[in-house]
Design goal:
The structure is a single chain. The protein has helices at 43-50, 72-78, 94-104, 109-122, 138-150, 168-183, 195-201, 219-225, 232-240; strands spanning 3-14, 17-28, 32-36, 58-63, 79-82, 156-160, 187-192, 204-209, 212-217. By secondary structure, the chain is an alpha/beta fold. The protein has a domain at 3-88 and 157-240: Rossmann fold. A six-stranded mixed sheet has the order 5-6-7-3-8-9, with helices on both faces. Strands 2-1-4 form a three-stranded antiparallel sheet, with helices on one face. Helix 3 packs parallel to helix 5 (138-150). The N and C termini lie far apart (39 Å). The structure holds adenosine-5'-triphosphate and magnesium ion.
Length: 254
């Protein structure tokens, strides 16, 4: 099996603050890697480095075999990114947002329109696609954001807290999309504050705390590393000496 993401000795600081202090990671193609960590742990920083948006201070990063700093175009052609904060343009309709991305990717008018229509149908967004994005609920907006991410058929998809703030139903819709993507061979790197989400979706999970992975393994292995642990909350507490922070309000954005 090929390696989609390979990272060795990754370091990144903001001023004096070491956010990533030596992270190693390997994600095989066609699998889901779940990165868990409290607010401020460095999850988004890691995603931004892999997605070519931020340069690391030290370490080796290979995304689809390419270096995000020196081969940024090749990395960008291989990946899709759904950021923590949606990339949807509020002033445009859902359809216009989609077409904008297709045009940015130079898909060509015919192929672009065809792909947009296909994804809007697939994500059940046809009925709302004519409305300004600003009028969409959090769950619909997130779905539109995901559809925009997939226009270029990326082999590797980064999802930074894809379900934070969504209600349970919208969350399950996103989970289903992730599972479909994996079924079609896509590699997924997702960050989350929800233990249940990592447990449900990820083949492997790492817990990021104070700049390092304090645990890594399958959900079952993680639970085994801490004897007596019933769930990942217990694992986090045992590894860090602190409870995992409470996730934001579930329905604030939905
Ligand atoms: N541009 C920046 N300049 C200075 N500090 C930053 C910058 N971006 C992030 N940080 C700091 O780096 C740390 C890691 O931030 P990051 O956004 O990666 O965390 P996170 O795990 O994604 O958190 P959250 O769960 O809240 O999204 C935080 O302490 C943050 O304040
Ligand atoms: Mg973040």
């Amino acid at each position: 099996m090929n390696t989609a993401i390979a990272i060795r000795g990754l370091q990144k600081s903001y001023g004096e603050v070491g956010v990533l202090r030596g992270v190693d990671l390997e994600v095989p193609e066609g699998t889901v890697f779940g990165l868990l960590g409290p607010n401020g742990a460095g999850k988004t920083t890691m995603v931004r480095i892999m997605a070519t948006l931020l340069a690391p201070d030290a370490g080796q990063v290979r995304i689809a075999g390419y270096d995000p700093v020196h081969e940024a175009d090749a990395v960008r052609a291989s990946i899709g990114l759904t950021g923590q904060f949606t990339a949807v343009d509020e002033l445009l309709t859902g359809h216009e947002n989609m077409v904008l991305v297709a045009d940015l990717l130079h898909l060509g008018r015919r192929e672009g329109r065809r792909r947009v229509a296909e994804l809007l149908a697939h994500f059940d967004l046809e009925e709302v696609a004519g409305r300004p994005a600003s009028s969409l609920s959090g769950g619909l907006r997130r779905r539109l954001d995901l559809a925009m991410t997939l226009i270029g058929r990326p082999r590797i998809v980064f999802l930074d807290e894809p379900t934070t703030g969504l209600d349970p139903r919208s969350r399950r819709a996103v989970w289903q999309i992730v599972q479909e993507l994996v079924g079609s061979g896509t590699t997924i790197f997702l960050t989350t504050q929800y233990l249940e989400e990592a447990d449900q979706l990820a083949d492997r999970i790492a817990v990021l705390d104070h700049g390092r992975f304090v645990a890594e393994g399958s959900p079952a292995e993680l639970k085994q590393q801490v004897p007596g642990a019933q769930n990942l909350d217990d694992v986090f507490l045992a590894l860090t000496g602190r409870p995992i922070p409470v996730a934001p309000e579930e329905d604030s954005l939905s």
